[in-house]
Request: fold
Amino acid sequence: MIKHILFFFSILLLFNSSFAHERQITINKGKPINVDGILEEGEWDDAGKISIEITDKYSITVYFKHDGENLLFAFDGFLPEMFRVPEVMLDIKNDRSPLMDDNDWWFHASMTDCWSNGSFNDWKTCVRTAESWKANNVIDMKAENKFEMEIPFQLINLDLDETDKIGIAFNATDTRSEWNFWPKHAQIALPGSWGEAVINK
Reply:
């Protein structure tokens, strides 16, 4: 009987560990970047990475790190025949609320920079070049594009002396009918479904 109980708890522990791994990343401090959409040699060697599965044979790679003042992201693998653009969602308090509120952020990069605090798909914010954060823009959406983003701690009220965990999700979308997330079962409007990032100073 005791063996059966121990076996059950070992399986449960393994499941929980696997689930946590699937929805948690660690963002370490690294070198600053040039936000130009060119993933230069060595520029992202000190970053963590995950994959967003688009199809059985195709995925987008997301790189992540920080430089002490900004969250830094890169997205690689966009193909002309599979139109997608990147989005980042952040839950600064990691309160996993059922709806987006004033500590939740949405960032989008394509031909323009779009972002919002407390909502998503806020297209009225879109500008060619944002002043409060950085992302490279692309002219030809049918090309094999790469994207980089730089999001200041100050903009999103992130203080690493007060918190080392935030909610996070990544989206590769065509903005109309296709959404592919990390974590896989995340929903853009539900911060409670997003993953978690542990940020090391």
Remarks:
- Helices lie at 2-23, 153-156.
- Confidence is low (pLDDT under 50) at residues 4-19.
- The longest helix spans residues 2-23.
- The domain at 25-199 is CATH 2.60.40.1190 (Immunoglobulin-like).
